[in-house]
Amino acid sequence: MLLGAFAVVTLRYLKDVHYSLVTFIYGLVGTISSLVLCFCVNGHFDPPQSLRHWLYAVAIAVLTLIGHTTLTIALKVEEAGPVALVRTSEIIFMFIWQIILLNTMPTAIGY
Questions:
Q1: Among 102, 56, 57, 78, which residue's Cα sits nearest to residue 11?
Q2: 38: how many CB neighbours lie within 10 A of its CB?
């Protein structure tokens, strides 16, 4: 929670910086840290094997880009408090989408 609050406040502080630069740096840092952690944990990287898995990876990337871009733009035009409050509702939508799209009921431990 502290890192999430720090991220929102930092993004609000960077409101004068163009949103595409902030999103690019976010993606660059995320990619580099993911690759480093992947090689540290597994020792190798296995790319997606089928077209379906590649489409899933691209869909996740596009949705993450859209989500971070809209968060950055929202923090440019609104105060950090209301944006952080709306951002916390993401978990509720994830549970709803899990029930509707995956037809899976969430449990106390998440499995």
A1: 78
A2: 13
Token pair belonging to 19: 């949103």
Q: Alpha helices of 42-89 — where are they, by DSSP H?
A: 51-77, 80-87
Measure CA 47 to chain center: 20
3-state secondary structure of 48: coil
C-alpha pair distances (Å), 63 with each of 58, 59, 69:
9, 6, 10
Residue listed under structure tokens 């449990």: 107
Residue ranges of domains in the chain = 2-79
Q: Could you report the per-residue pLDDT of 79-100, keeping only the tens digit for each?
A: 878 887 888 888 888 888 888 9
What are the Cα distances from residue 13, in Å, to 10, 23, 48, 62, 68?
Answer: 5, 14, 37, 25, 16
pLDDT per residue over 24-50, tens digit each?
A: 988 899 889 988 888 888 777 778 889
